[in-house]
Known about the structure:
- This protein is of the alpha/beta class.
- Helices cover 33% and strands 11% of the residues.
- It has a five-stranded mixed sheet with strand order 3-2-1-4-5, covered by helices on one side.
- A hairpin with a 5-residue loop joins strand 1 and strand 2 (74-76).
Amino acid sequence: MARKSRKTPEINAGSMADIAFLLLVFFLVTTTMDQQKGLRVQLPPYPDPTVPPPVVEQNDRNVLEVLVNSGDQLLVERKPLKIGDLTEITKKHIQNEGRLPNFADSSTAAIVSLKNDRGTSVQRYVQIYNELIRAYNEAREEYALKEYGRSYKDLPKDSDDAKAVRKKYPMQISEAEPVEY
């Protein structure tokens, strides 16, 4: 007796591509990406190439020069300084009001010039930038407590008092293009 050849059963794989595509879409839609936060810095407007930049005459005593070299060493007014002392010297500069001869004439004229080397680490840059911001925030806080009897943080951002504090201590941090030393 002759045997009939049996066909082996096959699995229908026609919808396998559809299922794989649906899974791919599901994972793409439900996955979240980490967002890098970065530093919140207001950049100057893009310059018009047809208009030459204005020449700004600035008294040297109104500019606090902060340099960071490729070895992450901090120099303030060309003298080595520990990062922990940067906040205090910056506050002394912006709150001077003409009292000491090596610091700013007034809080509105005070400028902090930050220059980095291309080899400066990002961690060191952020540390120094944070210290400079802290100095301005502490100066604003002290002024608000003295003048208005309230913390600067408690003042509504758009209130006249908060605007007066920001006008008294404008955050003027100038960042120059990184240089090679």
